[in-house]
Amino acid sequence: MGNRSAALTRSGSSASIAWGLVALRVALGVFLIMKSTTKFGWLMDGAPLIARLAAWAAEPDAFWLSGWYAQMLLPGAPVFARLVLFGELAGGLALLGGFWTRQVALLATLMILNFHLASGGLVAMDFLSDASGLVVVVALLALAFDGRKLPLSIAG
């Protein structure tokens, strides 16, 4: 009886963790979709991203790697503007539907780290308290590591 009780506790705990990850997946999907809605204008005009990258590259107090990275991204900014919009929107929708959760979460993590590196935020104290900083990155990594076969998922 003792082994059966332990097994039930473990399976109940696993189910609770899975549903917790589903809630996290849905919340992060909504987060990415909402972030993308501020960038719909980037579909027709990459100038807002170009202006941001130029400002980050010229920031005199920026971490040297961030300024260099922002400068390197500038030539591709018109293309990146559209990729960011589609990445956030498609990633958010995929997380909502549970479609390729682990892969999407990993790609979204890289996209967010990319933004924070270019902006200089990755090495700033604000990264620890920014809503799209450390908490979102760790939450996405949790899904990337253990987001397979969750309830309410369309695929993997």
Short characterization:
The protein has 156 residues and is an all-alpha fold.
Element layout with pairings:
Elements: H1 2-37, H2 47-58, H3 64-73, H4 77-97, H5 101-119, H6 126-129, H7 134-146
Question: How many structural domains in the coordinates?
Answer: 1
Overall geometry comes to globular
The counted number of beta strands is: 0
Fraction of residues in helices? over 70%
User: Which spans of ≥5 residues are poorly predicted at pLDDT below 50?
Assistant: 1-10
Average pLDDT confidence is 88
Number of helices: 7
Encode the helix/strand succession as letters: HHHHHHH
Helix/strand structural class: mainly alpha
What is the alpha-carbon Rg in Å? Answer: 19 Å
**Could you describe the largest sheet, including whether it forms a barrel?**
none
Percentage of residues in strands: under 5%
- Taking the alpha carbons of the first and last residues, their distance comes to 35 Å
